[in-house]
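User: Hey, quick favor. My workstation is busy. Could you predict this chain's structure for me?
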Amino acid sequence: MRNFWAFIGITIIAIVLALVIWSYANAYDKTKPEKDIKPSNTSCFTYVRVKVVGTAMGMYYNMAESSWGIRETLFVQQGSGYVVKDGFILTAAHVITPDKVETQSGKWSVHITKPMKILTRIILIYDYKDVSIIAKIHYINSELDIAILKYKSNKILKSGGYEIEYGQQMLKQDDVVFSFLHTRNENGFMTDNLKLRYGIVLSNKPTVPKMDSSLAWFNEYDITLQMEIQAGDSGSPLFALRDGIPILIGIIRATYNDGIVSLGYAVTLPRIRRYLNIK
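Assistant: No problem, here it is.
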């Protein structure tokens, strides 16, 4: 009997040691590469702008009748996307489906409410020029804020070709992350030019400086970053590094700024490979 329990103990120790060794072997880099990873001349065909124009049923308050009504309204929004595979673009779900819409309630007033129903939607993909490519929804998970768009394969858009990994549990504080984000022109509009931006992981879970209702907006697959993010960056890919090699680990989806603390958030990619038919 003693030999049996000794065997069990040795086995457990061996498993623990193997897991520790595996964890270190698969750890992400905590330092930037010696040379920055620069976008190529054709990167504008991989890191794209996503624009959505559609109609939805929105609510408005009728002052004359002192009651709420419903009417059709237009929505237009823009974000970013990444050509993850030929024919497929990865982005954030809230880039495709608006959280709020504006509904005219009077000559000088509108009401901003959650859309009751999306009626129509055209998804436009832009690369370096303002001629758009039409995309359709292939997969969308609003709870996780992940969407995959499908477009007809062409010789224009180009896959990034980086390995995709669900690495939330392997991410540690101070791991280096980066993305290529669209620059803005003098009017604040997104351009096709890209800028490399580094950040670090603060937590492999969603955290906010104050424990308030804003935490309920996040999901269990979100991570917290120290990284400068602005409106329109949602849907951009987030990369970590292993031995200097980029690995796609998430999608940028939100920012927090209370005037003192500025944080970024990304959602990791659980089960995403199956929806892309990647083994």
